[in-house]
């Protein structure tokens, strides 16, 4: 049997490992960084990722290359990053689906809490209930009264999307009914709503803000606990007779589990600085996003709250996907 190492030797080994980790963090990044985006170019996730990537490249002194890996509701990108080397050179743009998908798909190749380390929550925003202007409903109460009297159609960006699940929560709370019409993204759903082929759509606020401002759509309520600065006249669902109703959409940066904490800390500080730049803040506000920021623990808390929340909602919605 080998003898246990003396205490001094153990201390020396620990200090040596710490020095190696510190040297690695100081040398990082030594090549281009991949920023993996789980959606196709366009929409609201991709432009924000490219904006942050451009500023990160300037501050880190290495290219930050945005890679779009769409498919399976984001699972392709999530699994790719979960399996990547935790060396700080592969990062993920995460969003609501990271927390929702384990409840939505029978199998996913990652654990949203165990396989990632949060860096920062970049933005948050509301889900928005919008209707075609010709629908005789100007408030949530009037919309729900219509839903209880006759069939309505309500579109979403897709089965199991946060818009679909927010609508399902509303249906259950209000005792209303409508036909859910899933689309492949918010854009096609909005186009059909503007054309009058749908009665309503539930989707992320930035996707519809300009249409509401232009009068092409009527906004009835937001899903957050406070009104959205981008559309301050639009009440919350909690104000509209559904106390406690809250669904918040988010985006954030994550890295593979095991990434050096010093790298995480630097990425957090750099991204927080970028979010505070007047140019960036103005672009986010114009789209309807609210900068989030905060320490990595804030995004960890968001995931810890969201992951156990969705299985029951997915079950009620019948939105299980293959």
UniProtKB/TrEMBL annotation:
Q: Identify the SUPFAM superfamilies for this entry.
A: Periplasmic binding protein-like II (SSF53850)
Q: Which domain of life is it from?
A: Bacteria
Report the leader peptide range. Answer: 1-25
Q: Which PROSITE patterns match?
A: TAT
Protein's UniProt keywords contain Iron-sulfur: no
Q: Does the keyword Signal apply?
A: yes
Q: Which UniProt keywords apply?
A: Signal
The record's InterPro entries line, in alphabetical order, gives: BUG, Bug_dom1, TAT_signal
What family, per the record? Belongs to the UPF0065 (bug) family.
Q: What is this protein called?
A: Tripartite-type tricarboxylate transporter, receptor component TctC
């Amino acid at each position: 049997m080998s003898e246990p190492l003396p205490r001094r030797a153990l201390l020396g080994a620990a200090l040596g490992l710490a020095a190696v980790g510190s040297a690695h963090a100081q040398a990082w990044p030594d090549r281009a960084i991949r920023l993996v985006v789980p959606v196709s170019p366009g929409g609201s996730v991709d432009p924000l990722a490219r904006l942050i990537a451009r500023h990160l490249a300037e501050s880190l002194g290495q290219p930050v290359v945005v890679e779009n890996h769409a498919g399976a509701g984001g699972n392709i990108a999530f699994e790719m990053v979960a399996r990547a080397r935790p060396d700080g050179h592969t990062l993920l743009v995460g969003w609501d689906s990271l927390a929702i998908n384990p409840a939505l798909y029978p199998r996913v190749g990652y654990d949203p809490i165990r396989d990632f380390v949060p860096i920062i929550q970049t933005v948050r925003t509301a889900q928005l209930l919008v209707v075609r202007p010709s629908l005789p409903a100007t408030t949530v109460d009037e919309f729900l009264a219509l839903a209880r009297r006759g069939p309505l159609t309500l579109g979403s960006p897709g089965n199991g999307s946060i818009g679909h699940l927010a609508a399902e929560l509303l249906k259950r709370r209000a005792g209303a009914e409508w036909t859910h019409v899933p689309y492949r993204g918010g854009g096609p759903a909005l186009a059909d709503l503007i054309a009058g082929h749908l009665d309503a759509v539930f989707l992320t606020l930035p996707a519809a803000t300009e249409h509401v401002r232009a009068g092409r759509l009527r906004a009835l309520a937001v899903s957050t606990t406070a009104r959205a600065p981008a559309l301050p006249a639009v009440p919350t669902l909690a104000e509209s007779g559904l106390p406690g109703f809250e669904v918040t959409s988010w985006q954030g940066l994550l890295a593979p589990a095991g990434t050096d904490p010093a790298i995480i800390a630097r990425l957090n500080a750099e991204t927080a600085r970028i979010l505070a730049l007047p140019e960036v803040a103005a672009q986010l506000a114009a789209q309807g996003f609210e900068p989030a920021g905060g320490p990595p623990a804030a995004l960890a808390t968001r995931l810890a709250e969201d992951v156990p929340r969705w299985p029951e909602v997915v079950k009620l919605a019948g939105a299980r996907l293959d």
